[in-house]
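Chain X:
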Amino acid sequence: MRFFNTKLLFILISGTFFTLSACHPRDNVDFRLSTFKCDVTPPLGTPIYSGYEPLAEIEHPLLAKGIVLDSGGSRYVLCALDWCELNNSTHTLFRETLAKAAGTDPDHVAVQTVHQHTAPMGDADAMRLLDTIDDPPPHPDPAVIERSAVKVAEALRKSLGNMKPVDQVGLGKARVEKVAATRRVKNEDGSITVRWSSCTDPGLRAEPEGLIDPYMKTITFAQGELPLVRIHYYTTHPQSFYGDPRASYDFPGMARQAMEQEESVFQIYFTGCAGDVTAGKYNDRSPEARDRLAARLLTGMRQSAASTKYEPIQDISWGTVPVILPIRNDQGFASEDARAEMMNQDSAHSVRLSGAMSMVSRERAETPYLLSALRINKAFILNLPGECMVAYQLFSQEQRPDAFVAVAAYGDCGTGYICTDEAFSEGGYEPTATRLAPGAEGILKNGIKELLVEK
């Protein structure tokens, strides 16, 4: 797909509408940028993922961090939230609220979660559904979730008074050692053994890293030689522990904030297509293991930043493709199964919550998920919904071997996992936790092609 030099274009391809907006190269364009952040930690006592125990300790404040990029004719927003997920209409609410604050269209706003498992699960519709049944499991107050959107929007609005000229974009890349590894360890008979985010089995930890994307990618916006913000992209589940009532931005947040303190430059971190990638090979759940993971990720950020090569910003464009993904309806995954999960008082809180979220996702089955891409010169920032497997990230990069492609997943996570079709026949954990049917792979890949491939 070409990012055409036109303000707005509607195209129909294979029954799917998508929109493009762009700022074409011209003299004396005043590109400007602001950064914003705010604390989005829920109040103590709020049940948080993954055990839904009441929040008892705030080890780290959970942050929303983002940028507003003004191209001289349009504004674009990228925001990363230290939450586990934003689903369905809650994700839409965040995008719409931030868009209003920025004075732009919601389609020009990408909100992704970092996906820590020591943070809230944002699905206000599912929480309201739980409020209608007897003896519901503990869950966040929908008002707490929705007030967070207003809080982030206010931080964004205030940042607009401090927009700075930006004329350079820097691209950097570095290999990260001993952090990410596949969760899907293949056995000799072709079956899958799950290597969770924390793993104490020496034999399982000794298995190879498997299919991952080992690179940290960093995009820096600068004013002359002065960096204004660095945006990092790396791909692994961002968790070293989970299940206890503690809020933490975990090792990615630790590395991000340490980098910000070192450089005195605003730092943002996005998680890539980490649906089947964890740190379990290098994490035994100990505090020491978490410190090592944070240190290795920080080293990757430093090296990626150090490798940065700058060039003048010539043009900025934004593309979107909405896709309707097929809902799973086979035995054990139909609507009645989701309701039974929600109602079963003998089930774990997380299982009952998952049932409610699955019911909500089914109700919005005909509502598209939005894919978007911000292009700066020949660099692409691709924003995807759901908990995509890493194959989608590698596929995205293969579409533009001539370009710099950074990928953020965990947009609207109403999908649950977005598996490859092959994963359903292979087995393993991810196919048991997706709300989508086989066939989603082709639709998502076609959408990615439309955003990245020039014709």
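Chain Y:
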Amino acid sequence: MNLRICLHILLFTQFSTLWSIAFPQPAPEFKYKSFSLPPDARYLEGKVVFKIKPNAIHWPSLQQKLGALKSSGASVIFPGKTPPATPTNGYGQALADLSAIYVASYSGEWTIEEVVSFLLTDEAVEYAEPWYIYEPLYIPNDPASDTTGFLTGLWYHEQIQALQAWDTHRGDKDIIIATVDAGYDLSHPDLKANIFLNTDDPIDGIDNDNDGYVDNYRGWDFGGSTTGGQGDNNPSIGNVHGHWVLGTYAATADNGIGTTGTAFNCSYLPIKAAPDDSIGSIMFGYQGIVYAVEQGAHIINASWGGTYRSRLAEDVIRYATVNHQVAVIAAAGNSGQNQRYYPAGYDEVISVANVAYGDTLCCPDNAGNSTFHSSVDISAPGWFIFSVYEHDGYRSWKGTSAAAPIVSGVVGITLAAFPDLTPFQAAQG
């Protein structure tokens, strides 16, 4: 029986480019096993990520494979992106191309290992992998919002000599630090003053700045979309992990309440990367990083991760750090083991381990012990760090998720003090 191939190319929109493929032939046997799921990896079932080589989208072999997988459609993950004009930047570093990365559905009769292995046999495919899901890297403790918690929770300002730094420079509203996390309480009185407002797109139901996001006046929420392609403009609903991370560097200084974030006067951009019904799983972290770059963020904090490497993630990190010279700061992990965590473990990312009082090994209670690895770049306090909590509250917390935003705030102060540096250079210093 002759094979019939029907490729429907839908109109390109700012949100996605879709194609639907139908094949009457039965699914082939899987004879190649070149991919094994990393231990403990979490992923979105029924979805596979792949990147095609230049000019390969119309290759019949790839179309046939997607049809054999009974794919109901595939879409670009980062709509509107075009290939870089040159392969490298001025430093000779390879630029990332996000324009050819797709997500497709597949039939549940195959495992993700079979699907990825099958796609990897096609010469049109540069890489294929699961849609990975990441976990926030924190170990919360009991509430410590009383006077005792307040006094002990600020010890890290003295340890990193924040007061001396603020005496030299207190940051700048024009420096934008983006937090990609699980959601935020933006009504908290200690977070209101420093939020970055996109005045080019006020809330009126219109995409005034034509960036593909309607009314993204106060950040964005990717949690309302299956592939993170749209979402909504309300990042304020979510897991408390985001409050803690944000308050550690962004809590308002000199307002007479609560605490002071390490970034002092720098602005913050809230980006929600977890589904609304999630306990905090970071499903859209790398979409959030790309969004932060597009919105002009100088520094991006990622207090989440996993032990599994991702080619999509490598592209996104290179897009942020090499293509745009944005600094990405990430938590090194809380396993207490010699492990490489991602995204902290990528070469261009500043990987942050955590320490306790006196720069001693974290932690005295054996909770929140930092992952250690040759990829770690710096250590910062990460034990009983006082920060904001939901409903106008405050609590102490611990883990590398607390250490990373401390560093993000310090990089913001550094960049404000030395504006001739790129954010990437300021982080390297």
